[in-house]
Amino acid sequence: MPKTTGLPSLHQIKEKLSNDERNIVEEKTETFHLRDSDFTFEDLQTHWGEFKQIKKEKGRNLEYIVLNQPFSLDNLAITLSITHPLQDETLNNFRSELMVFLRGKLQNDKINIKTVLVQDIGNTRPYTPREKFTFLAEKNPAILALQQRLGLDTEY
To answer: Which of 6, 64, 67, 117 has the smallest set of CB atoms within 10 Å of its CB?
Structure first.
């Protein structure tokens, strides 16, 4: 009579699974290393420009505008100055792509990007006649002298 093999016991299955899990955990912990190469701000600017150019060539204008904003480097934190909350949302849409690109080019996995909302005061436009006169007077103080000499009124 041929010998039949029975099903493995529950204890044997649990033991086999726990051995397999230990082997997988050991393999994963051995192969994971963070890259931590040094880089300069100039290196960052070069690769940032490359990524910006890629976005421009693909016609991603909103992303290109966000990448055109000023940024700084403090240790491993890149601080991007944005002027509108929508720029932060736009950055979040491609942040992971930017991080993968920069981390690969700079060989540093510890880089991080944060944003700071700054108010753009250089873009205020004069609307009222008084604002227009003040704006022009700041550019050319002789206008004030001319206004006083001729007795002109800016409000009409």
So the answer is: 6
Helix 129-139 to helix 142-150 angle, to the nearest 10 degrees? 130
Decide: 37 and 106 in contact? Cβ < 8 Å. yes
- Residue 28: inside a domain, yes or no? no
pTM: 0.59
Q: Could you tell me the residue range of the domain that residue 81 belongs to?
A: 41-117
Q: Are 115 and 79 in contact (CB under 8 A)?
A: yes
**Residue 107, amino acid:** Q
pLDDT of residue 67: 94
For the chain, the maximum distance between any two Cα atoms, rounded to a whole number of angstroms, is 126
- Tens digits of per-residue pLDDT, 66-125? 999 999 999 889 999 998 889 999 999 999 999 999 999 999 998 999 999 988 666 677
Q: Are residue 65 and residue 133 in the same domain, yes or no? A: no
Q: How far is 125 from 132, CA to CA, in rounded Å?
A: 8
Specify the number of domains making up the chain.
2
DSSP letter (8 states) at residue 36? B
